[in-house]
């Protein structure tokens, strides 16, 4: 069993949960991956199991006790940590599952992992478009020492991310079929993706009693690809989403009282897609709506941001640790969405 100071970082989203354990220098000693860790997206039982499995694998890899006693600090950045009741739920779960950890951890919405990944001092705005959407902000400490933080969570009513792109695509296909909207290349793409012969079958099979379960986030790649190929309907969907993402950046700024310049960190599988129109349009919209604020498309995975949160919690995050984190190499499928 290692006697070195160990840190745990956990990033839980709707597509996967990943955990890393590293020593005091930033060298990763253990890692774990599991499924959906969002208590809203997966349900409480499945989400807690996913987080527990990822953490257990990471601790085992680092030869550290499963109860968390070997950790000097931990950061749990979890989708679905939105309300005080969610915090209370996870605090109770962690006390039960990792009694050796005590209070040596931070519990945050998963958007803060992205923020710390792109802004190592932890200050600024982070906007993530993956399977779902996240918008968070953290400002400098006030005169009383309190650090203002805000997570959009259910404030996001004009949604963005893969699920929204997929839903917009289906709506566009149905509207085009009725002649209520322009024809679009999305029709052929959606039918092929879901293996339906025509739009009427698509509609019936996905809305009837006992409806087929189809992944709307999976359609995001078709929307982005069609937009890149010049389809006007797909392009309009993408540009509309870019404006909404930028709008939540403005809202996040205002909620914590940030003053320009501050970094705006972009992340998530949809914003990081090889089809760059959404990313480019979002950067352009942010330039108009948050002038003077640098936009950061970080190369660090959010789970490294979660690990950085753990180091920052105990004042051990410095340039050397960040450099060592950046040198870590993971199997190709570990971070795959």
Automatic annotation (TrEMBL):
One of its GO terms (molecular function) is kinase activity. Residues 8-275 form the ATPase BadF/BadG/BcrA/BcrD type domain. Gene3D superfamilies: 3.30.420.40. Keywords: Kinase, Transferase. The keyword Kinase applies. It holds the Pfam family BcrAD_BadFG. This is N-acetylglucosamine kinase-like BadF-type ATPase. It comes from Microlunatus kandeliicorticis.
């Amino acid at each position: 069993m290692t006697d070195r100071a160990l840190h745990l970082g956990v990033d839980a989203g709707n597509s996967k949960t990943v955990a890393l354990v590293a020593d005091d220098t930033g060298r990763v000693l253990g890692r774990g991956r599991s499924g959906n860790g969002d208590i809203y997206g997966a349900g409480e039982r499945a989400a807690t199991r996913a987080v527990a499995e990822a953490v257990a694998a990471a601790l085992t890899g680092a030869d550290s006790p499963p109860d968390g006693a070997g950790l000097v600090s931990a950061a749990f950045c979890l989708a679905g940590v939105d309300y005080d009741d969610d915090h209370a739920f996870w605090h109770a779960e962690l006390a039960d599952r990792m009694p050796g950890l005590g209070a040596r951890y931070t519990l945050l919405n998963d958007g803060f992992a992205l923020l710390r990944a792109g802004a190592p001092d932890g200050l600024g705005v982070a906007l993530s478009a993956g399977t779902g959407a996240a918008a968070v902000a953290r400002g400098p400490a006030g005169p009383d020492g309190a650090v203002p933080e805000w997570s959009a969570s259910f404030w996001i009513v004009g949604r963005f991310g893969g699920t929204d792109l997929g839903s917009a695509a289906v709506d566009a296909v149905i509207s085009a079929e009725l002649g209520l909207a322009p024809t679009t290349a999305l029709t052929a793409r959606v039918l092929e993706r879901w293996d339906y012969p025509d739009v009427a079958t698509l509609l019936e099979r996905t809305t009837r009693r006992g409806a087929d379960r189809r992944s709307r986030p999976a359609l995001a790649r078709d929307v982005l690809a069609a937009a890149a190929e010049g389809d006007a309907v797909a392009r309009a969907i993408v540009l509309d989403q870019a404006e909404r993402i930028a709008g939540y950046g403005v809202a996040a700024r205002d909620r914590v009282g940030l003053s320009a310049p501050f970094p705006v960190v972009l992340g998530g599988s949809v914003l990081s897609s090889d089809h760059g129109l959404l990313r480019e349009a979002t950067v352009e919209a942010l330039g108009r709506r948050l002038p003077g604020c640098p936009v950061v498309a970080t190369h660090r995975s959010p789970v490294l941001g979660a690990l950085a949160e753990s180091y920052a919690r105990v004042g051990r995050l410095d340039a050397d640790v960040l450099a060592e984190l950046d040198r870590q190499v993971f199997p190709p499928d570990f971070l795959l969405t």
